[in-house]
User: Fold this.
Amino acid sequence: MIPVEEWLREDAPYGDITSELLIPPDLEGYGEIISRGKYVLCGIHHVAEVFAGCGVEFTPLFHDGDDVEEGDAVAGLRGNIRAMLLRERLALNILGHMTGIATATRRAVEIAERYGVRVAATRKTTPGLRALEKYAVSVGGGDTHRLTLSDHVLIKDNHIRAVGSLERALSCARNRSFVRKVEVEVETVEDALAAARMGADILMLDNFTPEMVRKTLDALKEEGLKERVIVEVSGGITMENLEEYASLRPDVISMGCLTHSVRVADFSLELR
Amino acid sequence: MIPVEEWLREDAPYGDITSELLIPPDLEGYGEIISRGKYVLCGIHHVAEVFAGCGVEFTPLFHDGDDVEEGDAVAGLRGNIRAMLLRERLALNILGHMTGIATATRRAVEIAERYGVRVAATRKTTPGLRALEKYAVSVGGGDTHRLTLSDHVLIKDNHIRAVGSLERALSCARNRSFVRKVEVEVETVEDALAAARMGADILMLDNFTPEMVRKTLDALKEEGLKERVIVEVSGGITMENLEEYASLRPDVISMGCLTHSVRVADFSLELR
Amino acid sequence: MIPVEEWLREDAPYGDITSELLIPPDLEGYGEIISRGKYVLCGIHHVAEVFAGCGVEFTPLFHDGDDVEEGDAVAGLRGNIRAMLLRERLALNILGHMTGIATATRRAVEIAERYGVRVAATRKTTPGLRALEKYAVSVGGGDTHRLTLSDHVLIKDNHIRAVGSLERALSCARNRSFVRKVEVEVETVEDALAAARMGADILMLDNFTPEMVRKTLDALKEEGLKERVIVEVSGGITMENLEEYASLRPDVISMGCLTHSVRVADFSLELR
Amino acid sequence: MIPVEEWLREDAPYGDITSELLIPPDLEGYGEIISRGKYVLCGIHHVAEVFAGCGVEFTPLFHDGDDVEEGDAVAGLRGNIRAMLLRERLALNILGHMTGIATATRRAVEIAERYGVRVAATRKTTPGLRALEKYAVSVGGGDTHRLTLSDHVLIKDNHIRAVGSLERALSCARNRSFVRKVEVEVETVEDALAAARMGADILMLDNFTPEMVRKTLDALKEEGLKERVIVEVSGGITMENLEEYASLRPDVISMGCLTHSVRVADFSLELR
Amino acid sequence: MIPVEEWLREDAPYGDITSELLIPPDLEGYGEIISRGKYVLCGIHHVAEVFAGCGVEFTPLFHDGDDVEEGDAVAGLRGNIRAMLLRERLALNILGHMTGIATATRRAVEIAERYGVRVAATRKTTPGLRALEKYAVSVGGGDTHRLTLSDHVLIKDNHIRAVGSLERALSCARNRSFVRKVEVEVETVEDALAAARMGADILMLDNFTPEMVRKTLDALKEEGLKERVIVEVSGGITMENLEEYASLRPDVISMGCLTHSVRVADFSLELR
Amino acid sequence: MIPVEEWLREDAPYGDITSELLIPPDLEGYGEIISRGKYVLCGIHHVAEVFAGCGVEFTPLFHDGDDVEEGDAVAGLRGNIRAMLLRERLALNILGHMTGIATATRRAVEIAERYGVRVAATRKTTPGLRALEKYAVSVGGGDTHRLTLSDHVLIKDNHIRAVGSLERALSCARNRSFVRKVEVEVETVEDALAAARMGADILMLDNFTPEMVRKTLDALKEEGLKERVIVEVSGGITMENLEEYASLRPDVISMGCLTHSVRVADFSLELR
Assistant:
């Protein structure tokens, strides 16, 4: 399901000229993909697709979601050397990107789950890679949140500005499909309460300070709305301030950095 | 030249259900893309492609390569609101990613050029985005290095292992096209000297300590090879250790992190 | 957003040989698309895409959702005759298919809304045309229901068989994304009640007789569950038996025939 | 040859979230596709393509063109349950659509062949599905007629209007490729005779009443033209009036409804 | 309708690095495409597509089918210089290839038409370019013959070998669509006569000597079959032996070399 | 890596109607691809891709680069006859085109290498086929030269005209990536010398007479520049004048005709 041919064409539109100069077309060998750090592995089955049908037998030695240590061989490759080297960089770029996301997500989840809070990703993904990135988030234990603009009703500030008022926006949203919830992004405690009273299923507290989050949660409890609405904290959450927000016990915290500022995981292919 | 339709389909395979519920199909308005930080802008003309032919007039207010400050409006949008909101996230994801790369590259270049050293990117890019990422590197003042496996001969450790010796590898490389240079990745000072003596056009010193780089450069000068070979330092170079390597004055320093561990630049779309 | 080039290639991989024999390349003229029946028009803006950029000025005379009568000109075309005739059949095939769906949906909605019941479509669509068909359903006033397997949790008999029990299935579904509802397809009144008690958001009563629907609704009311669960009737609903089911006042009735057994609407292109 | 990946992406752009919640990734099982009516089966080999290479062994139990009864298992599936359920709806949508067409065509052919008359389809097909639909027509025993605008010269009223006269149109058509016949669509008995006299290979009697068809056939016989020209009746032919036209013994009757107003055939997938 | 983006990507996957180094992004200018020989021009409107929407105004100065002389400017280009140079080679490659075919076809047609014989192309075309090549043949005055395997019934030696006999093959072919002719490839005079007697619409005399062609034509006349069958001569016809075959006056002579061994026409782009 | 499905669709958008009429769907057999001339075989592994996964076992009997004689069977095919015949023409068109190029290249290389001169191809290739054509050149022993506009800096007359002077052009080119050489196309002996003095890595002597080539080489030697610059002769070189230029011993001679005016090699498929 990943566009292997297209991505190979990006890296080798006219073949791998170095290997074609140096390596006999039929030379076979064995190699391993080695982890250069401690990670939550992700993408090993996608990498298997990269090597499918090219004369290289690819054997994953770990599964997505497994912990791997520096020096671990995560996969073995046996077969045509030219085919291996042609796909090496693509394979490592995929594996490094996805493992980077899963590892960061796991770290965030571990912090938040101590407080019973869920961690979610956003739509701030890399163009062309959303399916892979959302999958990596789920491998790391995160919630994939809205996948696309087509699958969830989320009323944001620009919508409210365009229709005139939160009330009018929520009223229009009543015509949504019966299978969809309605979420509202709010920027003040007052708007949060108003949206909850008007029947929003989910509140997204956008760029709230911890103090504002606390106030909102308290007020919702007071009005008996807390059980009827899901509270999501979003905007500017980083690994550094995550615990502070989590300790306030909203339902969900969403973090764009999980997918928009990925720190690659380091892997290499070693011929033996 | 960017796959706008494909990327929009990724974010809205069945349209933007929220805007379709809330916003009249013909509602028009004005909005701006606002920078939320101090960056080297990159991707503004790609974002223009995102809005082409959809009923939104897109006016860039800065050009790629310009410095922008927090709060700057980098583009104005006038026209159909639904069309704007449908493309908002895609546009911001592109702009944030490319600007992130250009900004980091500029920072690295500013450090290295004090020592007359060039900064280059690598093939450690995001699948599907290499052309955009290499372009962002050049906007930031970096060298794009090898673009693909098809356009430069670069002999790496796996090649040498497969053919048996550096000597044999370099001998095969003599049959390369007359328009190509030959680069050799080396892991020891001795190999660097050997490769230079055998006529390599470029040496890639892979994962060398500063001390090893210094030794290599000294030995090359001593043997009168320094002028005949380009010396590239690569592997594990970060913003933190860049200056230490640059001060040794190799010709080029290449940094995978410019493209594989991008820190997004923050932009938002505000309807006025 | 429709694949005009691909669909034209399907109908004219090597051009329109008749027009090329008979009609001078630069001949211009005027034509109209005429409705041959009484319909809820749908697809006129998609047809506009078919004629975009080919030297034909296309002017819709009605909008999607409008009622049109036999003999009404729904669009005017002025320009190159060859270009018009090359696209004629594709344009009419799209318009006829989408208008057929919108018209049938409107008819069903008119019956059901008398009882306050919503009509929904299903995933029984034509491969490659789902977005157009779901849009036509909404133009006809219907609910688009689940768009894809990715955007709604719907537990069906095959899932329950695979995991062993409804209870276990619903328990797994608790890990769904916080933005999703959970729907359960049930085949008996008892299962319906069980699923409602276990917290399903939506019940799909599959192939229930009217009597079974009535019993389910009564039992849900009795247990005070009616307000907490949405009841959807599905399976074997046709225009003929729709009113009988609607009069029982479930929340939603879904009808596969809206999209899987389309009766085309008849349009023709007349040169004047 | 069918776009399986594209059609799966239409139904599951981000995977099947229900199965991923409920069913273990490696769970295997056995299922069958069951016919829910009496049909001429069509598309079973296309459905085989849907399941190719996904870890499901697909065994057709009937062939295209076979009669199947309600309750017949038309195919067996053994293997990964997630893979089966991901493809279930696509497979059934294809099978239902093609079987619906083949079944209707067979019914029409059985009526017409009693009179020695051939039944043909038209270009009124579903965008993107013409190859499948024309194939289903042939499986049902029908003639596929013109496949595209590129493969047959068919002069219609709009052409004649554009060039000025039938005579001029037929004269231009003499320059056609030597491998092509020329067909003329006519709207009156007089035009039919004129076209036959001028050498048309095929006459398409468009929207003729039975009486007009009879007159045309009689006049052609009288003038000794009947053997030199093929007579096709077209426009407004339905299952209801087919026999009336067939009994007049034209050579061919073409019916758009075979492909433009398909009544789906009902199949289901049952896990055992 | 030509895949401009795909073909540009073939020639410039990462842009035109020379122009990007040398030419300011906004530099404008004027250039002309100059013919370097005497040709039948073909492809000028396809070249217009290459320059569409890139900031270059393209003005054809001749039309497809026109005679051009050495030194003639066939098109003018005004606008962005980088955009012009990026597309230069693609434009010239298309124009040279198509003009080469049209010019050769015209030459063959001029020879054959003196004898009232038609010249046709074959399916021996360049993969990916058949539509362009068949069009160029028609611009040169040739017959496009069968366009694809889907649009004409042509029984060849391999078919006859597979089914057992010419008779059986022709009998099967009676079930063809009523819009298709039947052509038979024969290798002996006897087979030609047999096929004609059995009702073939067209005979393809494959690799016949002129003497064999003459005998076949004489025998067909003698048996009164000449008027009922079209005689095509095929196989090994070159510009050199064309007249010898044409003088025997078969109906058609087909020449694979028109499209499989193209001699490019020479054009250049000159900036003024 | 070749677009087999797309190319098959070009030749059979609706299947092979002749084989479907004549040949039973399951008929199996054996056939061979026979060479009809003496060639340097090229493309046999690409042809293998054409037959992959279609029920035909394809066995190459020679490898790319082998000499084959008239009558040699270059490959054996065993399996489904319909599948074989559907792919026959595509397979032969590919094989004939690539073998034609490899054979012509080999002939040119044999002439030039007597003088120690290398033969190179150009970017004058067939749209969509460059990768195949450049590969065929290398199989014939030629140099592939610049593959695309993205991989080599080549300053041509239009660039110089646009920037004003050769000097300015070469000065801009200094900012190229450190992995690229710089080549300059020159039209006079003086310009050649100037470019060499200014540090061009490669000179392309464009449309030089043999006398001009000789003068350039002599002058370069005299100035001691000959060893520092590669001299390429280009423009108007044919098989006829190749030796005259080669005998002057430039480094490289490039010939557009290798790929832009291919003479097909003749192969046929014979069922046994």
Q: What stands out?
A: Residues 111-260 of chain C form a domain with the TIM Barrel fold (CATH 3.20.20.70). The two ends of chain C are 30 Å apart (CA to CA).
